[in-house]
Amino acid sequence: IIAHSRQAYGALQSYQGTTSVSGQSVTAEGKTATHHTSAKILFARPGKIRAEGKDSGGNPFAYVSDGVTTAEQIASKGVWKKVENAEMAIAGATGIAQNAATTVPALLLGTNWGDPFVPEYGLEVREDDVDGHPCYVVTNSLGTATDSLMGYFWIDEKTFLLRRYVQDSDSQAQTLEIAGQSRVVPAMKLHNDERFTNERLNENIPDSTFTLPTAQ
Fold it and tell me: What is the pLDDT of residue 27?
């Protein structure tokens, strides 16, 4: 099923859609925070992509690639900056966008960063539907000494594209060495519910959509 899904995204000549993520984090002390992000994704093969939206604080973010050059506007107060490639832009948007600008672009471009299906471990399959669309639900479980991560993928039985992606993670407190300094990362439970809507497939998208803005 996952192989069919990868093939379906790889076969698309163009993609337009909206990804919305709603989630909640809970610390070991019981402090709860909610977040909501969304991104509009536009893509044309072989490597043109544009993603734009707002983070949970209402701040805009975007990145765009014309297939050769990539620029991003992420936590930069409106300033566009060139980056090495589209995969780097996807990585830069991951945290602030809670994967809204990561999951579908990674599958369309075939990048390692952001690939939701990696690693494929402990897979189980059942059936469910999303908004009336019959789906395979693939469960991916991954555990380490300090963390557990569960991924649930609702994959459309007809198109093999994602309809929904839920992540549940539970991490213990850790001490990390960052830039030569010790930093304590608190224990936290995180729940993310990602939905994929307004999809239009294989329609013509003007090249002007992927024109790069003036970037530093």
Answer: 80
